[in-house]
Every structure is written in structure tokens, then in C-alpha cells.
């Protein structure tokens, strides 16, 4: 079994699921279980400056430079992955299984429960015929998002630390909590990290390279109804549930996740609760274009104002907060070398680069606006946040090779 697979299988068995309802940071203490293991492994393999932030759960470490020419100036490169798994599906008691020499047919995940990973709904499986896949037992997610990234960075670290003859500059690595709930870098120590730039290793299929992501905001709509007995409600009752429905109908019908792709933005109603008297609706607003993003936010507020005008009272109030912005603003043109180098590193590994926009966000998006330019590299994982998640072993091994190639290119070796 290769190093990266061995590490990955160890990490996914540790439950690190984050909690979007939590008011603490990290949102779950169990994320620190993996953090402590990583600290132990990094220390044992000889990394320097190994540290866990006991309060917040971050892990930091250094792979010291091995350059023979001490006067040579090379950048300090960072590599970052997150330790938590999505709240969407349980990450407890993960039972990974290796499917060797995949034959291109449906994969039986759980015979007892009759759970199958079907090719019909996952046609990309055909790209992995003859390769080895790690799958779940169909009752939990796998955790390749982002423990594949963690395993790949750890494998890179061990490779370099055990091979001092490989020349490279100073490498900084970090592992973060709570990325899946949008707060992964709230307390990240950018100055202490000390990298000139970094890569998050948190993408999907082999070859993915991402430096564009959504601009994102969260909006909470408070709906103020008026409840009276339905038998005498004419011209008096204002049903908050129906008011929320009316507001939703004011939003562009095709600007929702189910009708958009690529660079197209959307409004997404992700949570609703209410009774006649009052209701609350939580939305996320997304667009790659900053201009269209601002227009979407304004339209949302204008729709609420229109309804208030219609009813002659404040039936709707809006709370809106920006979450993150498109990191392309911080990558191009000033830091275009990050993409050029990653493309060359992939080509050296005989991997075809696939540059595409992220229809979401990463820790790297926020870090880029905190002064650490940080595009996103692939991990080899697929079907994130669900029980049909899987990862290709050969892809993980190639991802390690790509990271090592990036380091070599920046060292000029």
C-alpha cells in the first residue's frame, strides 16, 4: 500500500465532522483529535516548528530548506488542507474499502442495505476503469474532502524530510478546522505562517486547478406576519409563510442552483421555518462577477422594500453579510505565476490541467484577501459531501507528484 493511501485510510476513520449550528471555534472539539495525530506524525518525521493552536485547532509546521546554495533566493511556499468533514452526512465510523482494478460496472457499497454506486448517475466512473478506488459502505461520507488533501500534503512532507538530497526551499504546511462551515481561516495566523504564497489542496478530480470562485453573501429574511383567528381574518391576517412565498416569487426564477452552471450566479433558499405570525428564511447569494454580485444583493433588498411598500408596513427585514470574494482579484495578474507553475507541474506529471471556476469557496479564497494568494489544487476525490463519495488511488499519488513538482520548480531544481 502506498504512503498516501495508508495515511488517508487512517485519517478518514477519525470523525472530524464540523457543526454549522455551533457557536464555538472550532465548531466541534473532535476535529482536534486529527490535529493531535498530525502533530505527532509531523514531529516523528522530523518537521520543524510543529505546533498546534490548542485553542483554535490549527496545525502548523515547517519543512526546512535543503538548498546547498545558501545565498539562493527562493519563495517560501505554503500548502494547506482542512481537517473537518461536511455536516451534510455523518463522518462517524467511516468504513473505507478499496475496489481494485475497477471494471466499469455499478459498485456494490453495502450488500446488507442494498446500496449501490450506479454508473448511470455517475458516468465519470468510466474514467477510472482499470484503476483502484476507495469507496464508502454507503452509510457515511468518505472524507476525501479534505482528508485526501491532508494525506497528500503529509506524504509530500514525509518524502522531503526522509530525502534530504532533494533540494528545495522552505515549505510551510497548515491544516485548518471548520472549512465546511465557512469559518476555516477566521483565526489563521497569516503573518506567523510566513509563506509568500500558498496552495490549498482541496479540489476534486485529477487535473483540476482553480483560481476563481464565487463572491458570496448570506442573507436572512425576517418575515413579520399578523395572526388572528382564521374565522375572522378577512383584511386583517398577514400570513408570514405566504409573505415569504411571495418574496421568493419576486426573485428571478432561473437564478437558482438547479438552473445554473459555470460562471452563472444564483439565489439559494437553503433554510426556512415559520408560522403565521413570523418566519425566517436563510438565503445564500453567489456570483463570480463582483458587479453582478452587488446587483444581486441590491435586487434582494429592493424586493423586500417593494413588499414593505405594497403592504404599507415593514413585513420584511433583511440581514445580509458578505462571506468571501472571488480570489481571481488577488491572483491575476500579479500572482499569475501560481497558475503557470501549477500547470507546468501537472504537465511534468503527465496530467492534463483542467482550469475551471469553483462554484463555491475555499479557505484559499479568504486567505487570498488576507494577504496570502492561494489557488486550489486537485485531490482526486469525487462526489463530495455524500455517501457516494470516492477517491482514485492513482489520482492521489499523482497529486503528491504534482505538489513535489511545484516545490521543485520554485526551487529552480
From TrEMBL:
Location(s) in or outside the cell: Cytoplasm
Residues in Peptidase M20 dimerisation domain copies: 211-305
Protein residues bound to Zn(2+) 1: 82, 145, 202
Protein's job: Cleaves the N-terminal amino acid of tripeptides.
InterPro entries: ArgE/DapE_CS (IPR001261), Bact_exopeptidase_dim_dom (IPR036264), Peptidase_M20 (IPR002933), Peptidase_M20_dimer (IPR011650), Peptidase_M20B (IPR010161)
Keyword annotations from UniProtKB, A to Z: Aminopeptidase, Cytoplasm, Hydrolase, Metal-binding, Metalloprotease, Protease, Zinc
Cofactor list: Zn(2+)
Family affiliation: Belongs to the peptidase M20B family.
GO CC annotation terms, alphabetical: cytoplasm
EC numbers: 3.4.11.4
UniProt catalytic activity: Release of the N-terminal residue from a tripeptide
Top-level lineage group: Bacteria
Top EC class, one word: hydrolase
Keyword DNA damage: no
HAMAP family in the cross-refs: Aminopeptidase_M20
Species whose genome carries this gene: Eisenbergiella massiliensis
Binding sites annotated in the UniProt record for Zn(2+) 2: 145, 180, 385
NCBIfam families documented for this protein: peptidase-T, PRK05469.1, PRK13381.1
A single GO BP: proteolysis
UniProt-recorded name of the protein: Peptidase T
Principal location class: cytoplasm
Amino acid at each position: 500500500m502506498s504512503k498516501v493511501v495508508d495515511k488517508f485510510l487512517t485519517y478518514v476513520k477519525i470523525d472530524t465532522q464540523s457543526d454549522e449550528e455551533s457557536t464555538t471555534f472550532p465548531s466541534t472539539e473532535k476535529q482536534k483529535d486529527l490535529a493531535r495525530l498530525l502533530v505527532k506524525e509531523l514531529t516523528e518525521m522530523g518537521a520543524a516548528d510543529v505546533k498546534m493552536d490548542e485553542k483554535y485547532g490549527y496545525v502548523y509546521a515547517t519543512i526546512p530548506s535543503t538548498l546547498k546554495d545558501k545565498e539562493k533566493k527562493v519563495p517560501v511556499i505554503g500548502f494547506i488542507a482542512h481537517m473537518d468533514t461536511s455536516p451534510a452526512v455523518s463522518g462517524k465510523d467511516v468504513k473505507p474499502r478499496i475496489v481494485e482494478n475497477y471494471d466499469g460496472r455499478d459498485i456494490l457499497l453495502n450488500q446488507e442495505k442494498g446500496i449501490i454506486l450506479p454508473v448511470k448517475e455517475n458516468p465519470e466512473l468510466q474514467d477510472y476503469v482499470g484503476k483502484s478506488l476507495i469507496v464508502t459502505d454507503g452509510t457515511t461520507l468518505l472524507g476525501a474532502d479534505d482528508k485526501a488533501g491532508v494525506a497528500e500534503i503529509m506524504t509530500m512532507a514525509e518524502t522531503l524530510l526522509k530525502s534530504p538530497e532533494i533540494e528545495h526551499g522552505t515549505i510551510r504546511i497548515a491544516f485548518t478546522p471548520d472549512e465546511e462551515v465557512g469559518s476555516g481561516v477566521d483565526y489563521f495566523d497569516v503573518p506567523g505562517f510566513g509563506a509568500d504564497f500558498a496552495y490549498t489542496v482541496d479540489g476534486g478530480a485529477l487535473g483540476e486547478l482553480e483560481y476563481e470562485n464565487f463572491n458570496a453573501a448570506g442573507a436572512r429574511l425576517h418575515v413579520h406576519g399578523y395572526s388572528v383567528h382564521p374565522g375572522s381574518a378577512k383584511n386583517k391576517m398577514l400570513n408570514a409563510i405566504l409573505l415569504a412565498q411571495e418574496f421568493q416569487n419576486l426573485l428571478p426564477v432561473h437564478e437558482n442552483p438547479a438552473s445554473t452552471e459555470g460562471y452563472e450566479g444564483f439565489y439559494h433558499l437553503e433554510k426556512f421555518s415559520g408560522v403565521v405570525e413570523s418566519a425566517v428564511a436563510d438565503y445564500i447569494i453567489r456570483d463570480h462577477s463582483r458587479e453582478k454580485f452587488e446587483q444581486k444583493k441590491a435586487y434582494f433588498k429592493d424586493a423586500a422594500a417593494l413588499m414593505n411598500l405594497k403592504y404599507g408596513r415593514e413585513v420584511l427585514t433583511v440581514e445580509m453579510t458578505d462571506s468571501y470574494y472571488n480570489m481571481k482579484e488577488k491572483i491575476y495578474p500579479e500572482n499569475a505565476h501560481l497558475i503557470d507553475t501549477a500547470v507546468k507541474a501537472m504537465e511534468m506529471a503527465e496530467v492534463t490541467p483542467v482550469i475551471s471556476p469553483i462554484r463555491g469557496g475555499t479557505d484559499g479564497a479568504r486567505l487570498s484577501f488576507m494577504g496570502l494568494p492561494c489557488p486550489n489544487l486537485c485531490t482526486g476525490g469525487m462526489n463530495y459531501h455524500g455517501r457516494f463519495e470516492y477517491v482514485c488511488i492513482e489520482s492521489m499519488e499523482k497529486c503528491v507528484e504534482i505538489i513535489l513538482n511545484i516545490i521543485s520548480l520554485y526551487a529552480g531544481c
